[in-house]
Design goal:
Belongs to the ACC deaminase/D-cysteine desulfhydrase family. GO terms for molecular function: D-cysteine desulfhydrase activity. Its cofactor is pyridoxal 5'-phosphate. Keywords: Pyridoxal phosphate. Helix 2 crosses helix 3, helix 2 packs across helix 7 and helix 3 packs parallel to helix 4. By secondary structure, the protein is α/β, with parallel strands linked by helices. The chain has two domains: 177 residues, Rossmann fold; 100 residues, Rossmann fold (3-Layer(aba) Sandwich). The protein contains eleven helices and ten strands. A six-stranded mixed β-sheet has the order 1-2-10-7-8-9, sandwiched between helices. Strands 5-4-3-6 form a four-stranded parallel β-sheet, sandwiched between helices. 37% of the residues lie in helices and 17% in strands. Bound molecules: pyridoxal-5'-phosphate (PLP). The site of pyridoxal-5'-phosphate has 18 residues, from helix 2, strand 7 and helix 8.
Length: 303
C-alpha cells in the first residue's frame, strides 16, 4: 500500500474500520471479462466512494482535534448520509447545510437518526460555502469544514487506494463521476503504480466539460483518461425508460443493485461501448461500484 508518509500515523486512530470490497467477475454480454470492484459492500451508509473520500478527511479532522464535522449537500446526497454515519461512529458531531427549502425524505431521515443537525439553506446563500461556514461557525473551534461531496486532496488519496488494492492488471477501469474527485484519485493511483490501464469516466451531469479541469486540479491529466460525456440520460438524477429497464435486467441477472443516478449510467456506458467495439469483448474491464444504493429507497416513482 502506498499511503503517503504524513497520513500513515493517522491510521492508528482507526477512524474507519478495515473494509471488505472484493473484485467479482460477472457475466455481462458482449464482454467476456467484466469484473466489479464491490465498494458498495464496504458499508450500507458510508457507502462506496464516500467511504474512500471520508477516510483521510476524518483522520485529518481528528488529528486537528476537531470534534464537529460541518458539510454541504442536496436533499438526496449520499455524502450527507455517509458523513452523518461516519461522524456518529467516530464519536464526532455533524451538521449539514442542505440546499433548498425544508423537506423530509428517506435520506435526510437517515442523517437525522445518525445525529446530524440539518440547516436548510436557500440556493443563493448555499453557493458561498465558506461564507456560510464562517457565519455559523466562526467561533466554534471544534468545527471542521468539509466541502460538498467531500471534494479535497484527502479524498483523492483515499480513492487512489482502490488501485492499491487491485491484485491483477486491467485494460480498462470505469467509474461514474459527479464532481470528478473520485476520478482524480483513480487516475493518480494508476499513475503511482505506472499501470497501462485506461480510465473511463462517465459524468452523470449534462455537459460536464468541467470534469477534466476538476481532475487536473489534483493530478496531471494523461492519455490514460477517457471522458464519455454522452451517458447522462438527460442530466443529474434524470432517467429514461431505457435506463430503468437496463437496471431491472442487470440486477435480476447479476444480483447486484444499481442506482439510477450513478452506477446504472456507468454500466450502461460499458455495455454500449463494448457493443460499438470501442472496448474489445475479450479485454479485461473493471467497473468500480461506487455504492450509493440507499438513494433507491426514495425512487419508487422512477420504477
Ligand atoms: C457521490 C457519488 C459519485 C460521484 O463521486 P465524485 O467523486 O463526486 O465524482 C459516484 N457514485 C456514487 C454512487 C456516488 O454516491
Amino acid at each position: 500500500m502506498k499511503t503517503p508518509e504524513i497520513f500513515r500515523c493517522f491510521l492508528f486512530l482507526r477512524v474507519l474500520e478495515e473494509i471488505y470490497s472484493p473484485v467479482q467477475k460477472i457475466s455481462f454480454a458482449p464482454l467476456n471479462n467484466l469484473f466489479v470492484k464491490r465498494d458498495d459492500l464496504i458499508d450500507p451508509y458510508i457507502s462506496g466512494n464516500k467511504w474512500r473520500k471520508l477516510k483521510y478527511i476524518l483522520a485529518k479532522a481528528k488529528d486537528e482535534n476537531k470534534t464537529h464535522l460541518v458539510t454541504f449537500g442536496g436533499a438526496y446526497s449520499n455524502h450527507l448520509v455517509a458523513t452523518a454515519a461516519a461522524a456518529s461512529r467516530s464519536g464526532l458531531q455533524s451538521t449539514a447545510f442542505v440546499r433548498g427549502e425544508e423537506v423530509k425524505n428517506e435520506m435526510l431521515l437517515l442523517c437525522s437518526l445518525f445525529g446530524m443537525k440539518l440547516i436548510f439553506t436557500d440556493r443563493e446563500s448555499y453557493r458561498d460555502k465558506l461564507q456560510l461556514f464562517a457565519k455559523h461557525f466562526a467561533h466554534d473551534e471544534q468545527a471542521y469544514f468539509i466541502n460538498e461531496g467531500g471534494a479535497s486532496v484527502e479524498a483523492t488519496i483515499g480513492c487512489a487506494e482502490i488501485i492499491d488494492e487491485l491484485t491483477a492488471p486491467y485494460d480498462h477501469i470505469f467509474c461514474a463521476a459527479g464532481t470528478g474527485t473520485t476520478a482524480a484519485g483513480l487516475l493518480s493511483g494508476i499513475r503511482q503504480h505506472q499501470l497501462n490501464t485506461k480510465l473511463h469516466i462517465i459524468p452523470v451531469l449534462k455537459g460536464a466539460y468541467f470534469i477534466q479541469e476538476e481532475i487536473a486540479q489534483y493530478t496531471p491529466v494523461s492519455e490514460h483518461l477517457k471522458l464519455h460525456l454522452d451517458y447522462h440520460f438527460g442530466g443529474y438524477a434524470k432517467t429514461t425508460p431505457e435506463l430503468i429497464s437496463f437496471i431491472k435486467t442487470f440486477t435480476a441477472k447479476s444480483g447486484i443493485l444499481l442506482d439510477p443516478v450513478y452506477t446504472a449510467k456507468m454500466f450502461y456506458a460499458i455495455q454500449d461501448l463494448a457493443k460499438q467495439g470501442i472496448i474489445g469483448k475479450d479485454e479485461k474491464v473493471l467497473a468500480i461500484h461506487t455504492g450509493g444504493l440507499m438513494g433507491l429507497l426514495g425512487m419508487m416513482d422512477k420504477f
